[in-house]
Phosphocarrier protein HPr
Amino acid sequence: MTQRNVKIESKVGLHARPAAMFVQTAARAAGDVTVAKRGGGDPVNAKSILSVLGLDARHGEEIVISADGDGADALLDELEALLSKPEPEQA
């Protein structure tokens, strides 16, 4: 499983729109994708909006995203790019 530490830049953290965009992106992956707060806590399914919201990951905190399967590195690049934006783009 490939993993990446990512700092959350969104002012609302991994909540509401950023969380929805994160989950939608993770759900496109064929393999397992998990996310956890860095330094503690069990990883949760990154394809589940309730699990991701339940992390209560806030602005400035670091999370660990893990993915397996084909395209795991590209998926992590995409998820990191989403979380590195101060504000999510409007659809």
Summary: The chain has one domain: 2-83. The chain has a mean pLDDT of 92. The two ends are 31 Å apart (CA to CA).
